[in-house]
Write a structure and sequence with these properties.
Elements: H1 2-23, H2 31-42, H3 56-73, H4 76-80, H5 82-107, H6 114-119, H7 126-135, H8 141-165, H9 171-189, H10 191-195, H11 197-207, H12 214-232, H13 237-252, H14 260-285, H15 288-293, H16 295-310, H17 312-316, H18 323-333, H19 338-350, H20 355-383, H21 390-398, H22 404-411
Helix pairs in contact: 1-2, 1-14, 2-14, 3-7, 3-13, 3-14, 5-8, 5-16, 7-22, 8-9, 8-18, 9-13, 12-13, 16-20, 18-20, 19-20
């Protein structure tokens, strides 16, 4: 019963969040910010209205949905394109900077968990950023492709590194486990071919609006299947969620049927219920007391995210983007959180990370979600040709996360030509 009461409070918070965002004057905070802060408020270290114990499973599924939708947006062709190559170069530079920075901090006795903390600042929270950037029309055109590529690399590469170096097993076993889960994912992509394209189209067409909801149910089965497979092989479940999204993309994009209804349902189930529960639970689990006792650690990690992951964007995209958009990319790529939660949990469970650093690392991730996207949004708005009219402002304030998949997907296509008089790189039409 206690778990049900906690779930009621969390769901109530999630339902009130859009109203709170609409009531706040100005450009409006991302809903993720309100969800996390509300989690701190209602959690054990706040008012004590709810606990994470009874909602842990739902929060874990929410994390899975977050990365499934991120994986669904990942077009492998994008990584082979120019945007993907630049994203990989940027991540490698971040990894090199992280190694040097962590070595310096370690020499001063600031930390002892070199691998988890070294990986942490190389991550980018693409799944968290998608609804924020979509709500502010920042995923269209060339800029959107660079953002999606950088975010995909900033999630995939650290996830693979976590599976390799933080599973507590030999590297050979870790590599074999990754390959095994990868083979399962590849085999799953072949299912539509085995069934037959005509049969797949029939299933999608017949089940998308019926009470059976066949396509949605099989999407959830796919997610849970790969989550369980990753867990059984001792890998981080985030890897399974990303692979599930990529497999689902291969299923749906291999047909000529309009899959927008399925994508809308995934948004509704994910952003309507599971994902908000995950963000509220993340706020509830934040060790505020430990952070308050040593705020310097949080500030160090917060700056580290920007220096290691963000600043290389100024160099990497110097020939691809103007300075303002490179500055936006700097703050976008430095935004992270879900993987920091996983890294902190792994560090604590293995005993290589002290609790103060684990709390500060997660706190820095939360603070990055609170601050860095808002700076990027402010830069984007300043760079637009003319201020939006009253109707556009009203539409912006009312935009929800439901449309994130469609617009992000459009931005993820390898080539979207610019047309004269069309939208700029943020999807905002120029002034007449």
């Amino acid at each position: 019963m206690q778990g049900l009461e906690s779930l009621l409070v969390v769901v109530l918070v999630a339902a009130l969040t859009p109203m709170i965002v609409a009531a706040i004057p100005g450009p409006g905070l991302p809903q993720v910010v309100i969800l996390i802060l509300a989690g701190v408020l209602i959690g054990p270290q706040g008012l004590g209205l709810a606990s994470t114990t009874g909602i842990k499973l739902i929060a874990d599924v929410g994390l899975g949905f977050l990365f499934l939708l991120a994986g669904y947006e990942l077009d492998p062709r994008l990584l082979r394109a120019h945007a993907g190559r630049l994203a990989i170069i940027g991540w490698v530079i971040s990894a090199v900077i992280a190694v040097g920075t962590v070595a310096i901090l370690g020499s001063f006795g600031f930390l002892r968990a070199f691998v988890p903390i070294g990986l942490a600042p190389t991550t980018t929270a693409l799944g968290t950023l998608l609804p924020i950037l979509q709500d502010h029309h920042m995923l269209s055109g060339d800029f959107g492709r660079y953002v999606l590529a950088a975010g995909a690399v900033g999630e995939l590469f650290p996830i693979v590194a976590i599976s390799l170096f933080l599973t507590g097993r030999g590297e050979f076993v870790a590599i074999a486990s990754i390959l095994a889960v990868g083979v399962i994912a590849i085999l799953l992509t072949l299912v539509p071919r085995l069934i037959g394209p005509a049969r797949v189209r029939a299933i999608i067409h017949q089940g998308r609006r019926a009470t059976s909801q066949t396509t949605l149910r099989w999407s959830i089965v796919l997610l849970l299947l790969l989550l369980v497979a990753a867990q059984r092989f001792g890998l981080d479940v985030v890897l399974g969620a990303v692979l599930a999204g990529m497999v689902l993309r291969s299923w749906t994009h291999g047909t000529d049927i309009d899959v927008a209804p399925l994508e809308g349902k995934l948004d509704a189930v994910g952003y309507g219920f599971f994902i908000p529960v995950f963000f509220v639970a993340a706020g509830m689990a934040l060790d505020v007391k430990s952070i308050a006792q040593n705020p310097l650690r949080l500030l160090v990690f917060f700056v580290l995210l920007l220096v290691v992951r963000g600043l290389p964007s100024l160099l990497v995209y110097r020939r691809a983007l103007p300075l303002r958009q490179r500055a936006e990319m700097t703050f976008i790529t430095a935004t992270t959180m879900p993987l920091l939660i996983a890294l902190a949990a792994i560090g604590l469970s293995t005993g290589v990370m002290i609790p103060a650093n684990a709390a500060a690392l997660v706190g820095a991730g939360v603070l990055s979600v609170l601050v860095y996207p808002l700076i990027a949004i402010a830069l984007a708005r300043r760079g637009r040709a003319a201020p939006a009219g009253p109707d556009a402002v009203a539409g912006l304030a009312g935009a929800g996360a439901g449309g994130v998949v469609g617009a992000a997907r459009a931005a993820g296509e390898p080539s979207i030509p610019h047309e004269a008089g069309g939208a700029d790189d943020h999807g905002v039409p120029p002034a007449e």
